[in-house]
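Record type: monomer structure entry
Structure origin: computed from sequence
Chain ID: A
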Amino acid sequence: MPNTFDLSDGRTSTAPALAPLVAELYDKSPPPQRVRLLNTLLRPVGPLALVAISAGAFATLLPATRWRAAIATLDDAMRFSTGQVLELAHYVEQKSPESLAQLPDLLSDSPLWVGSLSGALLLLALRAWRRREASERR
């Protein structure tokens, strides 16, 4: 089901619901790819959101010192459930849909991801979204 997003320049955009595909891809991915996917999703997430998303599951990523950004490790990637990543992906889809536009580059780096059904579907959906965004800007 498509979602409508308010973009930073005041326009709205319709995008496919990508969060379930992202979560499924996370579920099927080996640990190193999970880390890369998590860190891509975490880029636009601030400290308050880390505490709020998925009942605070991502609060463990808050640095003990000054805030810079949340960075997941291999241990983190093994600890977070697919459901928690689904909630994180829903948040990113609403807050910063343009961040999801980085996922095709991430996916194309790994033949394993593109070879999976969820990876291929996500890649196709994101590419279609990118084309639609580009045509709306013209």
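Annotation 1: The two ends are 25 Å apart (CA to CA).
Annotation 2: The chain has a mean pLDDT of 80.
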